[in-house]
Design brief:
By secondary structure, the protein is an alpha+beta fold. It is about 25% helix and about 20% strand. The chain has a domain of about 160 residues. Bound molecules: zinc ion. Zinc ion (ZN) binds next to β2 and α3.
């Protein structure tokens, strides 16, 4: 069967078969949403990653590199393997030139979350998603988990019962960007109201949907990372055909 015939037999995306509503991440405001942000609160309960991080409540940290590819002209990214050769090239570049390399090394953090209320994407309400976040939210969660508020809040961030605490992502506009630095942990009283309807069985079912975070962005192998660096950073081994050539059909 040709590819074209195969496409004709494939169902279009729906919520049931992996369509847009099945995206794994908590929907945060985009640049476009930021235009109308007046201060939007997304309410969540965090869930542990029992599958791939059973010994800790620490969020998962994903390290990756990104560059506008010398081969394709498009942005491309790769997840660092352990002993990452691209990180090593970055350090060498830094020592040699004292300048930031042309390719980036970025970090983002992942934690499972039960969405209580997401006005940006109400279809996510009462579902389990992964919150993907950067430094602004990280600083607030760190304070609650290991910092100043650890005794009072700490692991309560992961309780679904009425002893737990709700994490509120407060998104507002700064310039043209959504910012999250006024996110907060809600009071015990208001947090309690959020889960008043959940039975013990509901809670167990929600915890069971927590995703294995280490599997979301599988790390490249060191060889793949080296090839990525050679191809997309150095532009070696460019394909003979121009990359923008039209598809054959
Ligand atoms: Zn790396």
């Amino acid at each position: 069967m040709s590819y074209l015939d195969q496409i004709k037999t494939l169902p279009l995306p729906t919520a049931e078969n992996g369509g847009t509503n099945q995206q794994p991440f908590v929907t945060l405001p985009t640049l476009r949403d930021a235009q109308s942000l007046r201060g939007t609160d997304i309410r969540l309960r965090l869930l542990p990653d029992f599958a791939t991080n059973p010994a800790s409540l620490a969020p998962f940290t994903h390290h990756f590199h990104g560059v506008v590819s010398a081969a394709t002209g498009k942005f491309t990214a790769i997840t660092c393997p352990p002993a990452c050769p691209v990180c090593q090239h970055g350090r060498e570049e830094w020592y040699r030139t004292n300048k930031r390399p042309a390719w980036s090394h970025q970090m983002e953090h992942l934690v499972n979350a039960y969405v209580l209320d997401n006005p940006i994407d109400p279809a996510q309400n009462h579902t389990v998603k992964v919150l993907k976040f950067r430094q602004q939210i990280k600083a607030i969660l760190d304070e609650a988990l290991t910092g100043r508020d650890a005794t009072e809040i700490g692991r309560r961030l992961f309780f679904l019962d009425d002893g737990g605490r709700t994490f509120v992502i407060h998104a507002e506009r700064k310039g043209d960007w959504p910012v999250y630095d006024r996110s907060f942990i809600d009071t015990a009283t208001r947090s309690k109201l959020d889960v008043a309807d959940l039975s013990r069985a509901d809670m167990e079912a929600i915890y069971a949907q927590s995703r294995p975070l280490a599997d979301i962005f599988p790390p490249a192998t060191p060889e793949e990372a080296e090839t990525w660096y050679n191809t997309h950073v150095l532009g070696q081994g460019l394909p003979a055909d121009p990359p923008d050539a039209p598809m054959p059909f």
